Amino acid sequence: MNKIIFNFSKNSQTLTILAAAAILCVAATPVFAAVSDADTGIAWGFMGMKVLGGLAIFLFGMDQMADSLKAVAGNRMKDILGALTNNRITGLLTGASVTAVIQSSSVTTVMLVGFVTAGMMSLSQAIGVILGADIGTTITAQIVAFPVKKYALALVTIGFSMLFVSRSEKTKHYGTLIMGLGMIFFGLSIMSDAMKPLRSFEPFILLMQDVENPLVGILVATVFTALIQSSSATMGVVIVLAQGGLITLEGGIALALGANIGTCATAGLASIGKPREAVRVAVAHVTFKIVGVFIIFFFIPQLAELCRSVSPAYPELNGIDKLAAETPRQIANAHTFFNVGLAFLFLPATTLFARFCEWVVPDRPNSRRGLPEIIMPKYLDDSLISTPQLGLARSRLEIARLGKNVHEMFKKVLPAVLTGNKQDLQEIVNIDNKVDALYGEIVVYLGKLSKINLSDQHSKELFFLFQSVDRLENIGDIMEKNMVRVGIKRIEDSIVISEATLKIINEYHSQITRVLEDTIEVITNDNVDAINRVKNLREEIANMTLETEKHGIQRLTADAPRRVDTYARERETIEYMNSIYRICRRIAESAPSNAEEKQSSQPN
Fold first, then answer.
1. How many CB atoms sit inside 10 A of residue 202's CB?
2. Is the full-model pTM beyond 0.85?
C-alpha cells in the first residue's frame, strides 16, 4: 500500500483544534438538531457545526495545497531566491511569483532570513522580496473569490484518484494539490450555505453594521488573523461572508486591512530568539503593514470605488443577491490593490528603510569579548523541516560552512605541525571545538528531517548528508587528535624538518587542500566536475605518497641528529593527510549525482 501521510505545517495547531472541534460537533449532531431559535427558525447547532466543519475543511485543504506546491516547486524556488541580484524590481517580482507558487509568505520570509543572516543577501534586497511576497499571498483570495463551488467535489475526486492510484511521487503531489484545492472550495461552500439564514437575522445584521466602522473591522480581523496565523484563512472567511451578501465592500476592505496587520504576528513569533537580522525582517514586515493601513484608512471609500469600477458587475440583480454576486471579487481586488500599492510606495526607498530597521534593531554589543568564539548555525531553521527540499538545501549550506572551517583548519595545521609552536597547535584545537559544536547542531537538524515523510530521492540525499557531516568531522578529529600530537612530539623532541622535506610535504599538502575545496563543492552543489576531480586524483596522490616515502628513506641515511624520530614524524604527517584524501574520495563517490551517473551507465 502506498505510504500516504498528510503533513501538517508547524502553524497547523489551529487547524488541528478546528478539526477536533468539527468532529465533536458531528458527534453531538442529535443535540444540535434539537437546539434552535423558535423566533427566527435558525438551527444554531447545525449552523455552528457546518461553519466550524467548513472552516476546518477549508484550512485543511489550504494546508495540503501549500505543502504540495512546496514539494513540487520548493527547491526551484530556493534556487530562484538564492540567485537574486540587487535589482529591486527583480526582487519584487521574484517574491511575488515564489509566494504565489508555494502559497506561503512565511516560508519565503524564513528563506530570506537565512539569506540575510548568512550575508548572501542584503536587508534592502530582502525588503523588496517581502513586498513581492505580500502581493503573492493575495492569489489565495483571488482563487476563492471564483464562484466554482459546484465543481469542488469533482476536484476532490480527481485529486483523490491521482493520490491513491499513481505510484509516481510527483503525481501524488499534484493529486494532493488538486484535492486540497477542491477541499478549499468545498469548505467555503459549506460555510456559505450555513450562513445564508443570517441574511434576515437582525442581531447579526447589526453586528455587520458595526464592522462597517473601519476601526472595528480592522481590529476584529487583526485579532482573528493573529490567533489563527493565516491571512489567507481570514480572507477566505471574509469572502464567504461576502458571497452570502452579509457584508458590504467597505466592511470587507476594513477586514482585509486587519488581516494584513494580523499576519505580521507570524513573522514576529518566528523572529523570537533569532539573530538580529531575523528581527529586522519582522520589523520591516510589521512597519510596511501598519504604515500602509494607516495611509489607506483615510481613502477606503476611494479604494472601494476603484474596486467597483474594475470588477465584474451584475446590473440585472438587486439587493442582497447583487451584493453577494459582486462583493467577493471586489474585496479580493481591494486586497491585491492594497499590497501592490504598498510595494510601489516602499520599493523606491528600500535602502533607506533598511537603515531604519537597522537603527530600530541595532547589533548587540559583543558580550563574549575575550572568550573563545562559539560557532552557531546560520542556515538551520525548524520551520523549513516540513518542506524537505528547503530543509535539505539549508543542511547542505550548513555542512558546507562546517567544511569551510575544516578547510581553514587544514590550511593551518601543516605549518603548525612542522614548524609552529604550542600556541599554533592550540589554535587547531580551538577550531576543532567550533567544528564539533556545529556538527552537533547539524546532526540534530538532520535527525528531525529524518522523522518526516521523505521521497526516495530525498531519503538518499539525507543519507548522503549524514555521511558527509560525519566524514568532515572525522577529518577534523584526524587533525586535532593525531596531527596535533605529531606537532607536540616534534616540539618536545626538538626536531627540525629540513627545507627539502618541507617543500615536498607542502606540495602534498597543497594538493590535498584543493581536494578538500572540491569536496566542499560536492556537498554544497553536488558538482559533477568537482566529484570527478576528487576521484581522478587517486593515482596522482598515490604517486606523490610514494615519492615522499622515497625521499624519507633517502633522508633516513643522512647524517643528521635524531633522524629516525624525524622520519617517523614526517611519515605520520603524510599518512594522516593521505587518510584525509581517502575520506574526501569517499564523500565524492557517495554523492547522489555520482550514484545516478553509475546507475545510468550500467547496461540494461
1. 8
2. no
